Amino acid sequence: MGGELGMSGAGGGALDPALIELIAASLAFVGTHFAMSHPLRPWLMKLGQNGFMLAYSLVSLATFVWMVTAFKAAPPGDLGGSGEIGWLLSSLITLPALVLFAGSLTPGNPAMPTPGAAAAARAAPTGVFLVTRHPMMWSFALWAVSHIVLWWSWRTNVIGLAILTLALLGAHLQDRKKRTLMGEDWKAWEAHTGYWPRWSRLGAAGAKIWIAALVLWALLTWVHLPLAGIPAGLWRWIG
Q1: Exposed, middle or buried, 40 (CB in 10 Å: 0-12/13-18/19+)?
Q2: Which domain range does residue 36 map to?
Q3: What torsion do the CA atoms of 84, 85, 86, 91 make, to the nearest 10 degrees?
Q4: Do 42 and 91 belong to one domain?
Q5: Per the structure, how many domains does the chain have?
Q6: Of 49, 78, 159, 180, which has the highest C-beta tally within 10 A?
Q7: 113/159 same-domain check
Q8: Distance (Å, rounded) from C-alpha 48 to C-alpha 53?
Q9: Residue 44 vs residues 39, 40, 41, 171: alpha-carbon distances, Å
């Protein structure tokens, strides 16, 4: 399908059925996340915390598996690509994404549903939380952007846009939800942190987080070839 941009049919005007299914699966994945986390949450919580988490996990897993299956069936490499400049940008964007992700995996993250969330929200922000109060969400957003800039295939762009929407709109909606659930504690956290990243503060993540991110970056870009069939990161040029 090289030059047909994911289209099929004699006139090139119809979307590939596999791509349509991927769009549907992506909408289901993103839509059910938002629905269960927000408008449906009060009703789902009647199942109890464990029941809610079970229902949430099962629906998320089912839609994720559907999305991955549809992705594999959709046409690969049907766009022109952004060349080596695109690969360079993608590689560079992935590193701060991993710094934010690694730094978010801490008991001191008030967004996590842990017993210490309220105390963490009242504490002064440190590390990646000086960059943004949503480091994990922004790590997913950067991952999505790093794939979209490659302009490699429609299927990659569909997945990228889905994750980008889930991350950035999800972060905004999370603020609304946490204000309701945590009240003044979350409002205090919002007062000392920002939604939009302050990239100049990325160094505040600390040496340990940067080292962990670099190791993850090297590992994940290395396994990109056996898993996705395409070399990524430094391995694209030195492999």
Answers
A1: middle
A2: 17-74
A3: 90
A4: no
A5: 2
A6: 159
A7: yes
A8: 9
A9: 10, 6, 5, 21
The verdict on residue 12 lying in a domain is no
DSSP 45: G
Shared domain check, 70 and 83: no
Residue type, 62: A
pLDDT in tens, the chain (239 residues): 333 344 444 345 567 899 999 999 999 999 999 999 888 988 998 899 889 999 999 999 999 999 999 999 999 988 999 999 999 999 999 999 999 999 999 988 999 888 889 999 999 999 999 999 999 999 999 999 999 999 999 999 999 999 999 999 999 999 999 999 999 999 999 999 999 999 999 999 999 999 999 999 999 999 998 988 889 988 988 86
Domain match, 96 and 45 both: no
Residue 10 belongs to some domain of the structure: no
Domain presence at residue 159:
yes
Question: In this structure, is residue 6 part of a structural domain?
Answer: no
d(CA 18, CA 35): 25
